Amino acid sequence: MPFYLRNILFILGFFLFASASDGNEKSGSEKDEEALVNLIQQSQLSKEKLVYLVDSLLNGDTISYCVLDALNKKLASEAFYHLPIDTNPPSHDLYCLWDTENPNSHAELPLNDTAYNFELVDKLNDCGFAMPVNGIITSLYGYRDGKMHNGIDIALKTGDPVVSAFRGMVRVARYYGSFGNVVVIRHYNGFETVYAHLSKISVKPGDMVDPGQLIGKGGNTGRSRGAHLHFELRFKGYPVNPRYVIDLEKKTILSETVVVRKTKTGFTAFPEGTIFHTIKRGDYLYKVATQYGITVKQLCAWNGLHKKSSLVAGMKLKVSQ
Ligand SMILES: [Zn+2]
After folding, report:
1. How far is ligand 1, taken at its centre, from the CA of residue 286, in Å?
2. What b/e string do you get for 259-273 counting C-beta neighbours within 10 Å, with b at 16 or more?
């Protein structure tokens, strides 16, 4: 059965049900009209269903005035055309909080092992990824002089444009402690991104932004030595290593789909379908295990290694079953 037919049948099914449940003394056609008007006025009626409904009505001989009137009102309603039907902030199902003051609000870590798969870019709306600033990476994510660095630093000159990485809604746009002027954006792909030390902010909370859209100018505000952008990728408020999601040299995303998995202290993200990890200089078992949200014990078992086995650059380790 073609898809549109099923939808018309759904509408007719509802229609009959609504008529049958109406117990007062009206003629059959009046009851039908009333049910149809009720259906059209439903706030959750999707655009698709409305289109199918109009199609099916046009196939009939006559359309009563009250049905036509209800249809016209529905089609003319601003809300139906100009606002997204879901007016919640992006990824609302993942986040309970929408705090426009505090960049650092984060959810409780789930107790169980949790993994999510996400499409990073919105192919349907032709929305991709843009590198926030086209500069040299001066500092990576990870421990630096015994302190955790939750993002990457990208060199820039004060006043250089800084753009949004993905499509999303601005959550925070203000001066905040060591971040200086900071913008936090919540994206439809489930992540949040943070842009700190800006000299100027060009957006406000609630603004929708596309990848590549200007959100501010680079600078040296907050705790910063020299102009640069401090950029973070976060999931539910926990920083994840952007390097496992973004190819920092090519300035593209590594893959369109990523896995986000719980670790002991937060979350980690990596391309979906990753089975092997190639050992690089500076890798050690715990680091590799954490990167893929698995335990050292699992990593050793899958690769026939011992906890104290030494790793050699170029070695390939199985990191997923
Ligand atoms: Zn930084």
Report:
1. 24
2. bbbbbeebbbbbebe
Cα–ligand 1 centroid distance for 168 (angstroms): 22
Fold: same for 115-266 and 275-321: no
CA of 194 to the centre of ligand 1 (A): 10
CA of 245 to the centre of ligand 1 (A): 18
CATH architecture for residues 275-321: Roll (3.10)
CATH fold group of domain 115-266:
Glucose Permease (Domain IIA) (2.70.70)
Average pLDDT of adjacent 10-residue blocks, the chain of 321 residues? 41 40 56 80 73 72 73 66 63 88 85 84 81 95 90 97 96 97 96 98 96 97 96 95 93 92 90 88 90 90 89 89 79
pTM: 0.69
Other residues' Cβ atoms within 10 Å of the Cβ of residue 164 = 26
200 φ/ψ angles, rounded to the nearest 5 degrees: -145, 140
Each domain of the chain, given as residue ranges in start order, spans 3-82, 115-266, 275-321
Distance from chain centroid for Cα 82? 21
Centroid of ligand 1 to alpha carbon of 155 (angstroms): 10
Question: Cα(147) to centroid of ligand 1, in Å?
Answer: 11
CA of 266 to the centre of ligand 1 (A): 19
Residue 167 Cα to ligand 1 middle (Å): 23
The residue behind tokens 């259906």 is 39
Residue 190, token pair as written in the block: 């489930």
